[in-house]
Amino acid sequence: MSGNGTSPPLLAVSNIEVIYDHVILVLKGVSLRVPEGGIVALLGANGAGKSTTLKAISGLLRTERGEVTKGTIELRGRSIERRNPSEIVGQGVVQVMEGRHVFEHLTVEENLLTGGYTQRNGEVLKRHLDLVYTYFPRLTQRRTTKAGYISGGEQQMLAIGRALMARPRLMLLDEPSMGLAPMLVAEIFEIVSRLNRDEKVAVLLAEQNATVALKYAQHGYVMETGRIVLDGDARTISDNEDIKEFYLGLTGVGQRKSYRDVKHYRRRKRWLS
Question: N or C: which end of the chain has fewer CB within 10 A?
């Protein structure tokens, strides 16, 4: 797969197939790359297969009776598709689930500490906690508040902060903008961008909000019905009129347009400069 440079990728997903309950084919020949220290967007409508792709990488498929039946998933050249989720976390890959899954009965700080469960050294754990509070100062103010009583935006920050407690090299973010006001979305994406830049955390970002995702990503893949149908650098995807109409739902004058009305859609063409 071209488009992400010539150096070996941090993550290489190659031609994977995913089946649920031994019969339901969900992903069909999905391939993508995430470079060291990069941000890659995985775009598509609800039900396109984005969440399943992330769960295949993180090992969480098995909790939902799913399995990777073909293809490979490699982290720094080593196969991880048969490993369990805790092993994959130990290798530096952490998923932030769609829907802000926090432990509502625990305080903000208790939630964060659950993310550092692999760390036995108390001093190191405290440093990780301080790092999270540095990036998410709102959480500092809420540290003793039960997570069920903080706002949706703060819960999303908490979910990302909890993942950061494991000091991942790759963070899998599933629909972080869902249900949030635009200003909060911008704030969260700016923090993710800082984490990427300053902490060298690579990000694979599954998003329906293509406009905001492509603003921060360097490369994008577009999914449709379990397949990757387009990929290219983020700027080219953003600027291409056909892709704007089909995937971003905008005509050249900014009006909404039905996907089926687009005439120039070309499957699996790479819009690379």
Answer: C
Overall pTM > 0.70: yes
- Asked whether residue 114 falls in the same domain as residue 232, the answer is no
Three-class secondary structure of residue 145 per DSSP = coil
Q: How many residues does the chain have?
A: 273
| Coil, helix or strand at residue 238 | helix
Q: Please report the DSSP string for 188-211 in residue order.
A: HHHHHHHHHHHH--EEEEEES-HH
149-168 pLDDT per residue, tens: 999 999 999 999 999 999 99
Condensed to tens digits (0 to 9), the pLDDT of residues 13-31 reads 999 999 999 999 999 999 9
Residue 17 DSSP SS3: strand
**Are β-strands 227-233 and 219-224 bridged in parallel, bridged antiparallel, or unpaired?**
antiparallel
Number of domains in the chain: 2
Q: Does residue 104 share a domain with residue 180?
A: no
